[in-house]
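Hypothesis: this fold can be encoded by more than one sequence.
Test: take the structure tokens below, design a sequence, compare later.
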């Protein structure tokens, strides 16, 4: 059956999402985010964010993008910018969708994700530690991972405008630590127009 043009356009919009083109790092756990959802990574800190494609110890990193950020352990506040769809760590090609504010005080680091009204935030994933990268324990060795689905701190936004996570600064982090902060963001839902109801043909006069 031929579908009305308005309905086809609406379905296409839901499948494709808005023009955040070319995201190649929507990997989370064992699944890829389908459009219109995307990865967003925080960037900033003392090193202005180090791309996972630079110096990452796993060759599979070429399938990923994102930043690890160096933060001082001294009491203070650092604001990291969240960029969505910045493939290849090119922030100029991404979309600023919010920020992650890091407040260090009394040996505790508090991370607050603040969202932009232009997107819906669904999930957050957070790693903090002495190493630049998150490591997963294996039977024989620890393996570096930039997969946000494996980060130790994660959860849902549940429609909140901001989410706060507090983590104790590890004792081995004497002067700095590293943060990898990721979020799953989605385009706002666009309501579809109702399906037109065909108008009955007039009954011929007798």
């Amino acid at each position: 059956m031929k579908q009305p043009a308005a309905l086809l356009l609406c379905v296409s919009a839901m499948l494709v999402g808005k023009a955040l083109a070319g995201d190649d790092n929507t990997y989370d756990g064992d699944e890829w985010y389908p459009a219109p959802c995307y990865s967003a990574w925080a960037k900033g800190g003392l090193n202005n964010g180090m791309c996972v494609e630079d110096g990452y110890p796993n060759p599979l990193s070429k399938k990923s993008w994102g930043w690890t950020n160096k933060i001082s352990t001294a009491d203070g506040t650092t604001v990291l910018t969240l960029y969505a769809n910045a493939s290849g760590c090119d922030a100029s090609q991404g979309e600023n969708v919010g920020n992650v504010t890091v407040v260090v005080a009394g040996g505790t680091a508090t991370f607050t994700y603040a969202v932009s009204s232009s997107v819906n935030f669904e999930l957050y994933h957070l790693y903090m530690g002495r190493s630049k990268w998150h490591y997963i324990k294996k039977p024989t060795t620890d393996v570096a991972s930039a997969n946000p689905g494996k980060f130790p701190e994660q959860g849902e936004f549940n429609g909140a405008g901001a989410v706060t996570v507090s983590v104790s600064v590890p004792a081995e982090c004497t002067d700095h630590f590293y943060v990898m902060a990721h979020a799953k963001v989605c385009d706002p839902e666009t309501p579809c127009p109702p399906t037109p109801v065909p108008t009955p043909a007039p009954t011929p006069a007798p």
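The two ends are 32 Å apart (CA to CA). Confidence is low (pLDDT under 50) at residues 1-31.
Hypothesis status: open.
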